[in-house]
Specification:
The chain is mainly alpha-helical. The protein has one domain. The protein is about 25% helix and about 5% strand. A two-stranded antiparallel ribbon has the order 1-2. Helix 2 packs across helix 4. The longest helix has 13 residues.
C-alpha cells in the first residue's frame, strides 16, 4: 500500500507520493510508527518524515515547497486527515490494529517510502 505518485500539486514543486501504511519489520504500521505518532498524524496531518518540506526548513539538495505555495509542506498533502481528526481514540486504535495485521509490502521505492520487511 502506498507509493502512489500524485505528481506535482503545482508546477515546479516536488512530486507528492503517498506513504506505505503496511507494517515494517517491527510489525508496527506506517513504517514503524507508534500508536501515539499514528494518532498525531491522523489528527493533525503532520508529516513526521518531512519528505515535502517548505523551502525555509529544507536544504538546497532536497526538493521543497516555496513560500508562495498555497499549502503547507509540513502537512501530508494527499492524506484526508481532516476527515479523521475527530475520530474517537478507540476508532483510531481499531484502524491502527487493522494496519498492523496487513503483511508488510516492501514497495518499489527506497528510503522512507520503502518498508524493510526483513
Amino acid at each position: 500500500m502506498g507509493g502512489r505518485n500524485f505528481g506535482s500539486l503545482v508546477p515546479l514543486t516536488p512530486e507528492i507520493v503517498s506513504r506505505n501504511l503496511t507494517p515494517d519489520k517491527t510489525g508496527r504500521p506506517i513504517g514503524g510508527r507508534s500508536f501515539a505518532e499514528f494518532v498525531q498524524i491522523i489528527r493533525t496531518g503532520v508529516d513526521l518524515d518531512h519528505l515535502h518540506p517548505n523551502c525555509a526548513a529544507s536544504t538546497a539538495s532536497h526538493p521543497c515547497f516555496g513560500p508562495t505555495q498555497p499549502f503547507n509542506g509540513d502537512l501530508l498533502q494527499v492524506m484526508p486527515w481532516p476527515i479523521f481528526q475527530s475520530f474517537e481514540e478507540h476508532d483510531l486504535k481499531a484502524i491502527y490494529e487493522y494496519l498492523k495485521a496487513i503483511p508488510c509490502i516492501a514497495g518499489p521505492e527506497t528510503g522512507v517510502l520503502h518498508n524493510d520487511c526483513t
